[in-house]
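Same chain as my last thread, 383 residues:
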Amino acid sequence: MISKRIKLGISLALAGLAVSAAVGAAIWPHAYGAGAIIVAQDEPARLSELQIASVLQNDPARIVRNIEDALAAGDPDLAESFVALAQDHRVALDEALIQRVSDAVAAEKAPGSVAKRFASGLVTGQADDVASLSGTVAGDLFVFGDIRDAVREGKHLVMGEETDRLVLGLATAGLAVTAATYASVGTAAPVRAGLTLVKDARKVGRLGEGLAAWAGRSAREVVDAPLLQQAVASGSVLRPGQTATAIRAAFRAEKAGALVRLAKDVGRVTEKAGTRGALDSLKLAEGPKDIARAARLAEAKGGQTRAILKLLGRGALLLTAGAFNLALWLFGALMTLLSFVASLKAMAERSTQAWLDRSKRRRLRQMQAAAVRPELAAAAPCG
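reply #2:
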């Protein structure tokens, strides 16, 4: 007979196994997903794929709502990005909705509309799409835009007035990069476009606070303030060649490495995800590392980038506050596994003890039986 204590131990161990298995089965999908996200935290494309899959699993209609919102806001580029995202994740869309997006994109790309936005970018120096960026970059390549910005902000500096040192530094760096673009027959053009876009994002308030602070410090370092003051004191947009040469003399190329790398990454985003994708990235970024991640995301996801940034925000670039919750799922899974192992160990120990006890009792009975047989034989009467 198995003792009551051992029976109770085996019953408790079996109960622990059952509970651990049930809890483990319930949290395993969450723990597996959390582990996959943590492993992918340094791969923006994979990280966004996992998170988008989770978002769509919980709310499949979210893409359709975002397409409708984008069309209502007059942003067919964003709507087209959501269509591409839906196709990649096999989300079915109504053909009529897809046609509406195609019509809106075609209207935006009409020659008259493109020419108007190009002229606007050339004159105002503000860009929010490919056409207006082309105009803005054209103005900067002809040094008009950068001279205008450098002279304006430089005169503020000379007069002791409030100066946007970031725009001033970017314009000064832009003049130097423009000269390098001509000298290299266009190979520095992505950096030139990147500097222009960062400058434009600053002007229209679409530069993330953290990134703006970092870029402001970097821009301050690349400008020799005394030389710049001398340059702008007599500078004018009416004498572009002379003024540009004087301003370029105030540029510290040895201090511009980080700013140029930022501009290069912005250019990579623009090339793969468009001007608006780059502006979205600049708005979300808290530092140059975020822009570098955005460039890697854009290179992997192309036209889907804007939709991904819209759905996930900065979480598309790196793990944010959710990392703690993810760690909790993994911790819960680990505790459940340890509980299962402990219950299995307890059951094995109790079962082994029960088997040993039965073996001991069986041997004892055999020994007692062997001892009784000789006695019976001796007590039996002789025939």
